[in-house]
Amino acid sequence: MPEMKTSEVAIEKTNLLGLSAVQLGDFFESVDEKRFRGTQVLKWMHQRGVVDFDQMTDLSRPLRDKLHQIAEIRLPIVVRQEDADDGVCKWLVETGSGGCIEAVYIPEGDRGTLCVSSQIGCALDCSFCATGKQGFNRDLTAAEIIGQVWIAVNALDGFGAQSRRRVTNTVMMGMGEPLLNFDNVVAAMSLMMDDNGYGLSKRRVTLSTAGVVPMLDKLGDVIDVSLAISLHAPNDELRNQLVPVNKKYPIAMLLASANNYLAKQSDKRRKITIEYTLMDQINDRPQHAQELAELLVATPCKINLIPFNPFPNTEYRRVSNNSLYRFKEILVNAGYTVTVRTTRGDDIAAACGQLAGAVNDRTRRSERYRDAALSRDEQRKNDLSDQQVVRIINV
Questions:
Q1: Residue 116: which residues within 8 A CB-CB, separation 6 or more?
Q2: Please, which residues bridge with residue 171 across strands?
Q3: DSSP H or E run through 277
Q4: Residues 67 and 91 in one domain
Q5: What secondary structure does DSSP assign to 150-204, as a single string?
Q6: Is 8 a catalytic residue?
Q7: In angstroms, how far is CA 73 from the centroid of its own chain?
């Protein structure tokens, strides 16, 4: 009888990075260890920045050896870090498949805000956003989302007691629509707020959505974080053009869901942040400001005006300063608290709306936008040639 060949079966290791305290407890219990080991490992990863089991000195040697066999702490890979003149940092992060995503750190006084991505590309197609033009590949895992926070804190020496730059706030406003990656985003935000994780308060963790209403209806039942609505238009006709998901979930439905989210929170003083990107001659007219003021009367909110940041192949232009401050004045006079987002990091394409990463697009959307841009450029050249011919004839 021929001798049978044997081969070792590779054990798929569990990545502990994105697991919650409960999940870590379940994991340790499943391998015949005490649940409290999960809390110990959680602190090592997210409070001390330690990702090597051998350095976790309050774990026994046999347990560390076992973890090497069955588990890992696998971080996303930093391809490069770019530093802007104004202190903004941007990381291009490889996700292991389907391209790269970007995360951005924005310092301002004692505050340090990290803009975190939730998808490789974006499943939505907002017409004024660079990420949407890249198409879509896949959702990020909880480990890939919280890994961006770990990378930023580590790069800023934030795991050290004497760090001068800290991540004090996180915003789910990077690449992707967070509510379309609901479970992983909620898991990652929970780690951001866990006292044994990054310990951020619920007021300092913000989720921004373009308006996926069914998931927003569900959000308040599972987590309490600050909420921002990417509105960008005061009526459905205009918003349908700028934010196509509005065709499915129009403004009235979105605001009702947002108000319902607030109603579920224990602190009745909470407000929603309304994000409004201003584009020249598109949504920046006085009548738009007046319409917006009327629209939001029944919604407890503050308004954040964002000057449009140009990116390659876009047809939109940045709002003029005069139009920006006229728009703001109308809203302030109507009784709203209004802020203007300062453009930061635009010298490294890290400003709001400019994040693009490197997406292996499954939708071919990026190809269509490139073709459309080339077609526009060719048409402009033809128009210029025609104008020159007319001038010569006239001469």
A1: 103, 145, 148, 149, 170, 171, 172, 173, 174, 188
A2: 115, 206
A3: strand 272-278
A4: no
A5: HHHHHHTTTTSTT-SS---EEEE-SSS-GGGGHHHHHHHHHHHH-TTTT---GGG
A6: no
A7: 23
* Non-local CB neighbours of 134 within 8 Å, separated by 6+ positions: 121, 122, 175, 356, 357, 359, 361, 365, 366
Query: Are residues 138 and 28 both part of a single domain?
Result: no
Dist. CA 142–CA 163, nearest whole Å = 26
- Whether residues 44 and 145 share a domain: the answer is no
Backbone angles phi, psi at 341, to 5 degrees: -75, 120
Are 57 and 101 within one domain? Answer: no
**72, 101, 116 - which closes a domain:** 72
Both 32 and 127 in a single domain? no
Report the predicted TM-score, pTM, of the whole model to 2 decimal places.
0.86
Report the domain count for the chain.
2
Quick check: is 112 in a domain?
Answer: yes
Residue 272: closest CA among 312, 229, 242, 234:
229
Residue 74 contacts residue 53 (beta carbons within 8 Å)? no
Active-site residue flag, 102: yes
Q: How many CA atoms lie within 13 A of 291 on its CB side?
A: 17
- Please give the full DSSP string across 261-274, using - where no structure is assigned: HHHHSS-TT--EEE
Last residue of a domain, one of 49, 72, 95: 72
pLDDT digits (tens, 9 = 90+) for 364-395: 555 554 555 555 455 544 555 555 555 555 55
Q: Which residues contact 374 (CB under 8 A, 6 or more apart)?
A: none
Q: With respect to residue 226, please indicate whether it lies within any of the assigned structural domains.
A: yes
Catalytic residue among 89, 100, 301, 352: 352
Measure the CA–CA gap between 137 and 143, rounded to whole angstroms: 17
- Return d(Cα 269, Cα 203) in angstroms, integer: 12
Kindly give the residue spans of alpha helices, DSSP state H, lying in 265-351.
Answer: 286-295, 321-333
Marked catalytic residue, from 102, 144, 177, 275: 102
Q: What's 107-160 look like in SS3?
A: EECCEEEEECCCEEECCCCCCCCHHHHCCEEEECCHHHHHHHHHHHHHHCCCCC
The domain in which residue 150 lies consists of: 77-371
Residue 280 sits in a domain whose CATH number is: 3.20.20.70
pLDDT, tens digit, for every residue of 143-163? 999 999 999 999 998 887 666
pLDDT band at residue 321, thresholds of 50, 70 and 90?
very high
Quote the tokens at residue 32. Answer: 């015949």
